[in-house]
Records
---
Amino acid sequence: MKSCLFCRIVSGEVKSDIIYENDVLIVFKDIHPIAPVHVLIVPKKHFSHLVEMVESEEGRTVLNDITKVLPDIVRSAGLENRGFRLVNNCKEEGGQTVPHVHFHLIGGKSLSRELP
Ligand code: AMP
Ligand code: ZN
């Protein structure tokens, strides 16, 4: 999608600090990190949000692909010996600001047990 920020990052039109990439996804550093490690796991194909993604066969395949390489992503983020939080904000009320599905991988410090 031409107007989508993350599609433009996927195509390389908008620069990002990529820490991991394969055929179906890229992982890059969040521009406003909330922890020492804060990267975004972003499917290359555009799905607006998580529910839209899992409603399609292709989206479910991509989600499965993400789970398969999660250990590699965690290693690339330097979190292999630590804990982390994996977050998806779904749609506006869920706090999603970029309408291209993505997962926040957050860590590098002790995170609060409280969820908002
Ligand atoms: P969300 O609010 O869940 O949709 O997350 C969107 C995230 O994208 C936020 O944490 C932003 O800081 C991050 N973000 C926005 N623009 C960029 C960008 N150009 N490069 C990297 N991260 C970005
Ligand atoms: Zn997009």
---
Amino acid sequence: MDDRTFDRHIGKLTLEQKVRLLTGATTWRAAGEGGIALREIVMSDGPAGVRGEAWDERRPSALLPSASALGALWDEALVEELGGLLAAEAVRKGVDVVLAPTLNLHRTPLGGRHFECFSEDPELTGRNGAALIRGVQAHGVAATAKHYVANDSETDRLTVDVRASERTLREVYLAPFEAAVEAGVWLVMAGYNSVNGVTMTSHPLLDEPLKGEWGFDGVVVSDWGAVRFTEGPARAALDLAMPGPQSPWGAALVQAVKEGRVPEKAVDDKVRRLFRLADRVGAFAPRRRRHLPVRGSLNTRALLRRAAAAGSVLLCNQGLLPLDPTELSTVAVIGAHAASPRTQGGGSAGVFPSAVVTPLAGVRARLRGRARVVHAPGPTPGAAAAPLGTDRCDDPRSGAPGVLLRVLDESGRELLAEHRLSGRQLEPDLPPGAHTVEISALLRPQRTGEWTVGVGGFGRMTLTVDGDTILDGVFPRETDDPAVVHVNPPVQQARTELTSKRRPVHLVARRELVPGCGRATVVTAAPPEPDPESAVAAAVEAAREADAAIVVVGTTEQDETEGRDRGDLSLGGCQDDLVRAVAAVNPRTVVVVNSGGPVEMPWRNDVGAVLLMWFPGQEAGAGLADVLFGLQEPGGRLPTTWGTSLADTPVTRTRPAEGRLDYAEGLHVGHRAWLRAGRAPAFWFGHGLGYTTWEYEAVDAPARVTAGEAFTVRVRLRNTGARAGREVVQVYVARPGSAVERPVRWFAGYAAVRAEAGRTVTAEVEVAPRALRHWSEEECAWSTEPGPYRLMVGRSAGDLRWEGEVTVERRACTG
Ligand code: BGC
């Protein structure tokens, strides 16, 4: 269809009908219009999987590695392939629009959604975002570049006013969105935050550069609930207010148009864009199966396993990895995360994975029949209690593993009863007359002692254990943040003494539904915590006897989640003590870090190896075992600089002062900030070791180039180790003596190559013209300074192997 057809459709609609299309029909659907055969368009989060329209654990999803793990791949082809998997999942779940990728930056390691963003660098983020978008959209499913723009931390995210110069915005925070538009993205999501005093859903940046200069012809959708006024967003370039049907648009927008406060042609332009999207995703026709590459579940699992291994980053290795299974008779696998890993971050990105391979299961599978694997969980890492699940609960009605969910009317009459697999119910069906949500279970306590049980949500909540009320209160909502209200509400806890050998206890949690209190109800139970000292002692005993110790440490859902930022970077709950104690008795100790972003590792120089597994998705343990035992190389490189400590980190501010968050560091984010501060981090952007070694033999770079033209840096390198490997060759640029402020050096491009042991290979790194340009605020335009630039080739921002010079010449005047 073309614009003329869209305009014909627009001509058939009344103002009321047009405006109806501009607000969601439901939480996850854009409205349809029967008269023009337009069906509803279904949306779903993203980015680590496609959840579908409901948070329903009975309809699980393929869980991909989180974005920081994808940023660590330095492999756009693989990211594109994973985009194809998201598209396949979307089609399987009847979803037209995936709310991914997140293109905000790792401005500070404290950012609560750090795991959901690719990297600290605009160039690397833009390339990954573009690859994911290509992968998703190649199959007729829309991708959404979010959150436009400067939504890089969570504190007061609904109201924060980010202050950044035009140059900083253009060169750093807008750059990944520009790459997304170049890749042809079909939606852009406007964030909750303000930039330089204007809220993003009404911001002139939606017009220029997005729709004007960059030529974005798709739909600007609001973040959920981010449209708070009628006229501002309607006159600005915001097209679709989500969710619905309640919104500040609707009748108020019709009125504003009738009174001439919003031009009708602005409404028509929004509708035209929606029609373009509808045409792209096939919504002008009944839903039908689309042609997609065949991807069975085995295929999916193999891809996710490969991705988990390829993104893992080996930070240091005293010759310990890979482990040779033939030399092992006992291996100690230590840490709570070994048996309960974090496979994804918290918040709207969450999905229910079809299955999870834990690190412990992955190691056991690899060593089965070869070596004994012992597990010591160590101290509890400070995580909040997990929601009830099938592992220790049964449905009191059917007896099947899981819980009973009931919805009751005001008189207590049952309106709905369902057997469910999780005590975390975020969007249960609510029949008319629904007054109370009840989740009940028969809990089998595996340990005697004081258990912590809890119920999460807002409003009046009660919790009984075998008929005794242990919690009863009214818990008012203190925030508007949807990530808290609908996804991660606070849990009210109570303690109760339980005995393990006794019959199961009957837990009943009830929450009354009142307007504004969200739909989330969560019931949790946690056994008594072992005393940390004896837990460490048990781990030490296991490690002392073993040929190697694998200690898995990590963050918790409270540390890395949407809706709030981290307070510090330390590993919670005595995990540092655990690592030190284990490494003291076993020099063959590998520490595996299970986090979405940087953590402090004060013991990093005292252990045999440190390997980052990130939030690796459902095949966590399978991919990890492939790397630990050498079937795969740890292929990843850091997409973000890992500091020594929070105190040393140059950019950490996430808390606004009087509502404003000043991006005072300007262009100097990530490795650029460390370079400017003259400080060495623990590990630089780009760092990562494989299982072989490389010699950089020769570099061939042009001495002169023309401004505005790409050029290629050729790097010959030799694999000097004993096995085949992959190397990520990086190019950095500097401009000493520049007339404008510049980073000390900045990342300009990379190429990954593979070579057999002993072989040479040439990496061809293309440097795009945008790597040399800067935004001139005086001219309001891009500009490339002529003259000499330093070119650097290296293995990371801090490990350079070659330096040379390239002179940029003005483009000849053709006039
Ligand atoms: C998040 C978005 C998400 C949306 C819908 C918002 O709170 O910021 O990333 O797509 O909710 O779940």
